[in-house]
Amino acid sequence: MSKVASALTIAGTDPTGGAGIQADLKSFQEREVYGMSVVTSVVAQNTFGVNGVHHLPVSFIEQQLHAVFQDIEPDAVKTGMIATIEMMELVASVLKGKSTHYVIDPVMVAKSGDPLMEESSRKVIRDTLVPLASLVTPNVPEAEILVDFEISSTDDAKKAARTIVEELGAGAAVVKGGHLTGEAVDVLYDKSGYHYFKSERTNTKHTHGTGCTFSAVITAELAKGKSMADAVATGKAFITDAIKYTLGVGKGNGPTNHWGHRLQGLPNLGGEKVE
Ligand SMILES: Nc1ncnc2c1ncn2[C@@H]1O[C@H](COP(=O)(O)OP(=O)(O)OP(=O)(O)O)[C@@H](O)[C@H]1O
Ligand SMILES: Cc1ncc(CO)c(N)n1
Fold first, then answer.
1. Does the residue 1 lie in any domain?
2. How many domains does one find in the chain?
3. Rounded Cα distance, 121 and 110, in Å
4. Does 176 participate in catalysis according to the annotation?
5. ipTM passes above 0.90
6. What does the pLDDT look like over 209-222, one tens digit per residue?
7. Could you confirm whether 47 is annotated as catalytic?
8. What is the pLDDT of residues 80-124, one digit of tens each?
9. Is the separation of the CB atoms in 206 and 243 below 8 Å?
10. Marked catalytic residue, from 12, 13, 111, 212
């Protein structure tokens, strides 16, 4: 019997199911990967915003991680909301030396503008976790904090992706274009150079959890042994349909549609190598 691929998300929660661990598990399931989760912070949030955050004790996060790794070694790991320096150091100590694919979605601020990472931790993630990552998936404001320069164009995004790899030590970086204007262009930089992933921009306010879903799909694809460029291409195709075929759930900025790709199949949105 062949073993199913497995993925672990280490992240915060969204009780309304659009972002965080809940979005990650739905994404793993849609990509036919066995999903597991370790909760870092319980977040009282919905499609309007964040009402409260409760960080779990670091010792209890450690107990959860131990429970997983003692039993099931995941093929890929993703981290989302890791709010404090102590949590970052714990995750680094657990992942250091492991050959598992590791994707960081450096979640700092929710779409609603509410902070999800302590301000003092924002720079620390660069030294503790980023050097361990196979891939980092910042949006534009997160990338600006990681690289310390402003990003207002795809050219700036290219420079940022390269800086995250060559100066901060990640294996690869994809800077997402959700916060820029025009076509939604994501720029991947890895050992083989730059790749662009482009889609039309859907005119919608229902983009809660787009970043979580995008990085979780990439994590699932890496767990199945796909190459970095193929994994990001699938993530981009999946999130494009998940945004396009909006569910109409929630009264604020609604979640994406994890079944959206079933309506279209997964279109090929690029991944062609560019100079
Ligand atoms: N309106 C849109 N139309 C099409 N694609 C979009 C749109 N908004 C975002 N995307 C795509 O969604 C993915 C996630 O990007 P985004 O910049 O929104 O992440 P994020 O800000 O981290 O999300 P979140 O914080 O809500 O989880 C990227 O592939 C981006 O190009
Ligand atoms: C727990 C959590 N992680 C990430 C995001 C970013 O979308 C969110 N809103 N909530």
1. no
2. 1
3. 16
4. yes
5. yes
6. 999 999 999 999 99
7. no
8. 999 999 999 999 999 999 999 999 999 998 888 888 998 888 889
9. yes
10. 212
